[in-house]
Amino acid sequence: MADLLAIGTRKGLWLARSDDDRRTWTLDGPHLLSQEVAAVGIDTRGSSTGDKAPRVLAGVQYGHWGPTVTWSDDLGRTWEETDEGAIRFPADTGAALARVWQIRPDTADRPGVVWAGCEPHSLWRSEDGGCSFALVRGLWDHPHRPSWEPGAGGGAVHTVIPHPTTDRVLVAMSTGGVYVSDDGSEEWEPRNSGITTPFLPGPAPEYGQCVHKVDVDAGDPDRLYAQNHFGVFRTDDGGGSWTSIAGGLPVDFGFPVAASPRTPGTAWVVPLVADAERVPPGGRLRVHRTRDAGATWTELGAGLPDGSWTAVLRDAVCVDEGDPTGVTVGTRDGCVYSSRDEGDTFTLVADHLPDVLCVRAAVLP
């Protein structure tokens, strides 16, 4: 067994590998140097027998040539991309791709299916492992779409969560909030009841929330956690209603939330001082963990720095499927910290990288 970390930055991608203990890492890169890598996916569905490497997918921004999806089937030695781009808006939309924000392989029961969340607000589905994508017209043609506004980082679908046993798909966007399709992506409805909007006058609307990230609990696919632009929330009914679980956190602003893939009730957030400052409270980079679905939180900081006036972006925290769960955190000042014990202690994987935009982890056979 080995562990793989994919680290997407403002100027390229790095791959880190640990062959023994998830404490000692070998860093390989840069790959795709000078390209912005805002989204990474590691598709291990074809590598379970050990005779095939996982597919590493990257949402890149080439600058002059624009954004696309590229992939490697040999752990970064070579990269491929589809002629004329994997993601292209149909001519009748009058839109052009600005950035790929999310790449999400589906479950093992749906081999070849990969989802992409993009800017402008759009969802895409691939059935060939991420080589080409089709626009999900049900979400693009939704009557709410003209009202979805860009957040500070842009207007994008940044979270895609396919249900493991049904056709349900959940997405979250900034701004717009949480939307759910129960039929595989044709019909969509907002699921934001209980998520607050302190940045808007009056009561919270049906949609328009600035949800920063959503993740799903290991024990129940209808239990999800959301880090909002002010507020941390949990739903136990697939987004039908949300309840605040921010009590016990030093502040309720932040970008990422990550849930354990193996331990029900366990999730992590990285609090930041709101709103314009967006730095750890007191300059102390800390991860906070709940083991009881948000009823209580524990501050974790062993191996994390003080005097850290940086930020952690929405996809710069990830978890792996190891036992115990590993947690990885990347910062905007180019540091990556990883824990092999659910956040109790962290070790430095890399520093002096460009601005870390996203991290993804996988356990290799």
Automatic annotation (TrEMBL):
GO terms for biological process: xyloglucan metabolic process. Signal peptide: none annotated. SUPFAM superfamilies: Oligoxyloglucan reducing end-specific cellobiohydrolase. PANTHER family: EXO-ALPHA-SIALIDASE, XYLOGLUCANASE (EUROFUNG). This is Exo-alpha-sialidase. It comes from Geodermatophilus normandii. The lineage of its organism: Bacteria, Bacillati, Actinomycetota, Actinomycetes, Geodermatophilales.
